[in-house]
Write a structure and sequence with these properties.
By secondary structure, this protein is mainly alpha-helical. The protein is 51% helix and 0% strand.
Length: 71
Protein backbone atom coordinates (compact mmCIF):
# COMPACT_ATOMS: atom_id res chain seq x y z
CA UNK A 1 0.00 0.00 0.00
CA UNK A 2 2.78 2.42 0.88
CA UNK A 3 4.60 1.59 -2.33
CA UNK A 4 1.45 2.30 -4.38
CA UNK A 5 1.02 5.69 -2.74
CA UNK A 6 4.64 6.63 -3.41
CA UNK A 7 4.52 5.29 -6.97
CA UNK A 8 1.82 7.85 -7.81
CA UNK A 9 4.39 10.62 -7.56
CA UNK A 10 6.68 8.92 -10.04
CA UNK A 11 3.82 7.99 -12.38
CA UNK A 12 2.70 11.60 -12.54
CA UNK A 13 6.20 12.70 -13.52
CA UNK A 14 6.14 10.12 -16.32
CA UNK A 15 2.89 11.61 -17.65
CA UNK A 16 0.78 8.70 -16.47
CA UNK A 17 -2.57 8.92 -14.68
CA UNK A 18 -3.40 7.03 -11.53
CA UNK A 19 -6.84 6.75 -9.99
CA UNK A 20 -7.61 7.81 -6.44
CA UNK A 21 -9.19 4.55 -5.28
CA UNK A 22 -6.89 1.78 -4.10
CA UNK A 23 -8.30 -1.72 -3.65
CA UNK A 24 -6.04 -3.40 -1.16
CA UNK A 25 -6.46 -6.83 0.37
CA UNK A 26 -4.51 -7.60 3.48
CA UNK A 27 -3.60 -11.21 4.27
CA UNK A 28 -4.89 -12.52 0.93
CA UNK A 29 -4.57 -16.18 1.88
CA UNK A 30 -7.15 -15.73 4.65
CA UNK A 31 -9.44 -13.21 2.95
CA UNK A 32 -11.22 -15.50 0.49
CA UNK A 33 -12.81 -18.94 0.57
CA UNK A 34 -11.87 -21.73 -1.87
CA UNK A 35 -14.38 -20.45 -4.45
CA UNK A 36 -12.88 -16.93 -4.33
CA UNK A 37 -15.67 -15.35 -2.32
CA UNK A 38 -14.51 -12.77 0.22
CA UNK A 39 -15.08 -13.44 3.91
CA UNK A 40 -15.44 -9.67 4.41
CA UNK A 41 -18.43 -8.64 2.32
CA UNK A 42 -17.24 -5.02 2.23
CA UNK A 43 -14.72 -6.16 -0.42
CA UNK A 44 -17.60 -6.38 -2.91
CA UNK A 45 -18.40 -2.69 -2.45
CA UNK A 46 -14.73 -1.68 -2.51
CA UNK A 47 -13.89 -3.57 -5.71
CA UNK A 48 -17.01 -2.22 -7.41
CA UNK A 49 -15.96 1.34 -6.55
CA UNK A 50 -12.42 0.64 -7.81
CA UNK A 51 -13.60 -0.69 -11.18
CA UNK A 52 -16.25 2.01 -11.51
CA UNK A 53 -13.60 4.70 -11.10
CA UNK A 54 -11.18 2.88 -13.40
CA UNK A 55 -13.87 2.70 -16.09
CA UNK A 56 -14.64 6.42 -15.69
CA UNK A 57 -10.98 7.36 -16.14
CA UNK A 58 -10.65 4.97 -19.08
CA UNK A 59 -13.54 6.60 -20.91
CA UNK A 60 -12.44 10.15 -20.02
CA UNK A 61 -8.86 9.57 -21.17
CA UNK A 62 -10.03 7.79 -24.32
CA UNK A 63 -12.14 10.82 -25.26
CA UNK A 64 -9.40 13.30 -24.37
CA UNK A 65 -6.81 11.23 -26.24
CA UNK A 66 -8.87 11.37 -29.41
CA UNK A 67 -8.29 15.14 -29.44
CA UNK A 68 -4.51 14.72 -29.39
CA UNK A 69 -1.78 15.22 -26.83
CA UNK A 70 -1.65 18.65 -25.16
CA UNK A 71 2.14 18.79 -25.00
Amino acid sequence: MRAAVNARIMLGELGMVSIKTIFSVGNVMNSFDKEGNPFDLSYNKKVFRFFEELEWYTEALKEAGSKGVPF
